[in-house]
User: What shape does this take?
Amino acid sequence: MKLKFNFYLLPALLPGCLSATENRTQPPNIIVILTDDMGFGDVSVYGGKFVPTPHIDRMASEGIRFTQYYSASPISSPSRAGLLTGRCPGNFHITSYLQTRAGNAAATMNDYLSPDAQTLPRTLQAAGYKTGHFGKWHLGGGRDVKNAPSITTYGYDEYVSTYESPDPDPLITSTDWIWSAKDSIKRWNRTAYFVDKTLDFLKRNSGTPCFVNLWPDDMHTPWVGNMEEQMLFPEGESSEKNFRSVLIEYDRQMGRLLEGLKTLGIAKNTIVIFTSDNGPAPSFRGSRAGNYRGCKASLYEGGIRMPFIVWSPERLIPKGKTDDTSVVCAFDLFESLCRIAGAALPAGFTSDGQDMSNALTGRPQKRTQPIYWEYRRNDSKAFPKPADNDVSPNLAVRQDHWKLLVNADGTDARLYDLAHDQRETANLCEQYPEKAKELMEKVLQWRNSLPAQDKL
Assistant: This one.
């Protein structure tokens, strides 16, 4: 296959790294680690106090740590859809987690991500990348949804996935549930299994640029640590003890991934992005959310502000940098990673993000457009409420340092100045009525531009 890269982009993006000649030999491998339900405060380099996470911290010390990164949604399926497509998931009628047909219908959602959606892996695949998905999918399939498209439909050459997918791996899905004691690959070994699959894929495709989703599900309950460490399941599946046990092992596997890349001799031409799909549940009194307000299923910061690290040792990414100023979101990754890879965007490309490749490669970048979110379209149980019961309005917008939350009917507006109140404690609508009006008009206009799910 003839590779289709815009090589002229790479030298400008990777200053002080490789010569132009070296840059033209092969674009970088890209691995996106999307942790499941990991909060901002779970990682010690982000202030986490539960257990040390030395291997994730090492990613930060050898790369860039961002403090203002946002997921596409405060819950799994729409968050994943937004990352892969660069579009608000409401465009695809996905506004909560995908589940049974009846549950999806109650939330007026589709049963799976449209196979016609433009996706990042399909775009990189067209440019000559080998593409793999290893881990949780949760974009259609599983339960009683039997007609979801294969994962390969979305641009992946290979995949291994969990029960929430159209073709789950039998070694980790002996029953139709998240895990079973009968699984050949035990719950506490699952991230290791996905790391092994990732490294094997990279080894077999050596010499060709690779894009990999590594999407483990370990930090989502049930937490089942090694049975030598705990014998509490099922009584302790949501306990802090089990959480700590699983986080220790998860961090260790991140270290195995980094060492595996070095052993394969590809670390210096590989970019690893480490983040989470949404906020934590349970949040353990807010501590797992970094003491931001809210958690999973909330549009407050604790539900959507995530850890975000870009790692590549020595020559692709600056070392040990913290970016406190660039505001980045999951919608940006499609265009930004294509830019870094030198891959042409699809014809008619549309995005709800923007190119933030300068920020991702070490040059802080001012955001020029707002970020919009939606969570909940009705009161169906298909839209879980946050575990801390701090329910947010169902729309949000961030522009510059201002953030407004409001319901789609225009009620319960809440304006926050994140430059001075990151905990979202003081509603400033009365003090700044013009700013509140401006942002409310923007977010309601945006919401009204989305497809009407009630007409499915």
